[in-house]
Amino acid sequence: MSSSIDAPNIIRLLPDQLISQIAAGEVIERPSAVVKELLENAIDAGATQLAIRLEAGGVKRIAITDNGSGIPPEQLALALTRHATSKIAHLHDLENVTTLGFRGEALASIASVAQLTLTSRTRDAAHAWQVQGHDPAAVSPASGAIGTVVDVQDLYFNTPARRKFLKSEQTEYGHCMDVVRRIALARPDLRFSVTHNGKTTEHWQESELADRSAQILGEPFAQARLPLEERAGPVGLRGFVGLPTAARGRADAQYFYVNGRFVRDKLLTHAVRSAYQDVLHGDRFPAYVLQLELDPALVDVNVHPAKIEVRFRDSRAIHQFVFHAVSRSLASTAPSSELSVSASATSPNPSPFSALPWHAQQPRQSSLGVAQDMARYGAMFSDNFSVGSAGATTNIVHPAKNDQPDEESFPLGFALAQLHGIYVLAQNRAGLVLVDMHAAHERILYEQFKQALEEKAVTLQPLLIPVSFHADAVEVGTAEEHRTNLASLGFDIAIMSPTTLAVRAIPALLKNADVQSLARDLLRDLREFGGSHVLTEHRNELLGTLACHTAVRANRALTLPEMNALLRQMEATERADQCNHGRPTWIQLAITDLDRLFLRGQ
Question: How confident is the model at residue 344 (pLDDT cuts 50, 70, 90)?
């Protein structure tokens, strides 16, 4: 079989058309890539209104109309030439890119694999001018408003092999819409409209990021998001991060922008994911819309043909800035004047107690359990409430008005009763608060233990009588191998025989736990995670196991002072809105919600 190249060792200069088609293979992967390049050019031209018209998922037609500055007729032919751009002229410009498109390849690459018509009119022109991609030298008068229309038809008509790799019409349309949504989120100040096969599918007016993100990511995200805005010198980060309760099974609601450019950057994704590690475990993915702004000289956007990846001059500093900014947002939510959540809501309100002026300065709780903390808060309530022996509230007596504690300082209010040994019912100025007591206490203990571990202040509690239990060879081997890690966590587990382990000390925070069960689960986690860096890499999983074992259990009757002590600790604990697995620990039902349930006033 003969080769199509008679002399493969001879170097040839490729024809311009083939060069453009090769470039198109890098830049124009599918119809959505055409949409991206054309929208970026339109935005760089100062457009405020963009109309996207698609047919057959963009394969048959992509027409994008903008009201930007337009292209003078004498430059229309040049616009279809490879490496022709108005956005950079020198190396300095490339190192300080402030535009979205700058390579000067998009129009030429698209014209090499599709039927392209370019129509444009500047503000001082009497009419528009038009040029065809197959004959860029023939510029002719045309009708058209100020701005530019790029009409791309029959994508890959001359490269059928590439066209065979495209998916179904609906799939390609979905990819095109993904691109439109990304750009629309980056520029909420612009107006977008989309039609597909002659039917309008989306229309977004100019708005703020809060409104645009609600339109694109949906109401569940809008109801469970936290605002974020931080700046450190030349670097700023703003946008919204979703509460763990808004997490999804796929990473399809993660939008990160660098100087207005949507990116998929491993460094930034890792920074955000790390910030969520305390409140989101398992295979769930957080939702967020974040915009990073920094000096263009500090980031290189010219490292990927599709400009989807970036490289930072100081990647470590950027990682730490993003990580701490998102962590602070999750730990201390924005102020909320209304404490109401719909009775049908599945996610909690942004935490009202974190907005209090004393919250930022108040130190974390000392290493005390709820039962130990009773004495601190119990006196405030014991004279005013009567509690039955089973923990159910009876004969509630409200304090006199002059003796009423200041609810401004206690936003979660004060306990009324316990429901089925699982939920604490409390009253605050807005209405009814429902607390999952196990989940809430688990978060409190988790944060306390994490703080103690970070400060290397884990206090050991020696056991008067060591707890011995039968262990298999694997458990004994794990105890021996991870002796240092166990000591760092506050455990002293001794090997008494080839089949017996004895727990001689545990962390003081966990003194009320089932020692044998706790030790077995801890050894199982250490065996599963393995390695010498277990505390660094899997600390959260280990602490979650410890907290879960010690948290107050369901069906345990709490007194009113104990319930109020739990509420007070929640108010003083970071991330108290969610348990360690991302579930809400409390929800608010406003009086208006209760009135609506009982049809009051209707």
Answer: very low
DSSP track, 424-445: EEEEETTEEEEEEHHHHHHHHH
Residue 142's Cβ-side half-sphere holds a number of Cα atoms within 13 Å equal to: 23
Average per-residue pLDDT for the chain:
80
Angstrom distance (rounded) from CA 242 to CA 254: 10
Instruction: Indicate the pTM of the whole model.
Output: 0.66
Q: Is residue 307 domain-shared with residue 413, that is, in the same domain?
A: no
**CA angle (196, 198, 202) in 5-degree steps:** 50
Domain total in the chain = 4
**Rounded CA gap, 303 and 549, in Å?**
48
Residue 567 sits in a domain whose CATH number is 3.30.1540.20
Q: Look at 93 and 316; give whichever has higher pLDDT.
A: 316
Last residue of a domain, one of 281, 299, 331: 331
User: Using CA atoms, how far apart are residues 189 and 198, in angstroms rounded to an integer?
Assistant: 26
Q: What is the rounded CA–CA span in Å between residue 91 and residue 367?
A: 58
Q: Which two tokens stand for residue 563?
A: 């319930």
Strands (E), 431-572: 431-436, 460-470, 492-497, 500-507
Q: Are residues 188 and 246 in the same domain?
A: no
Containing structural domain, residue 390: 353-441+555-597
For the record, the structure tokens of 6 come out as: 């008679």
CB-based contacts of 25, cutoff 8 Å, min separation 6: 162
For residue range 258-313, what is the model confidence (pLDDT) as tens digits? 999 999 888 999 899 888 887 876 678 899 999 999 998 888 876 655 667 788 98
In this prediction, residue 71 carries a pLDDT of 93
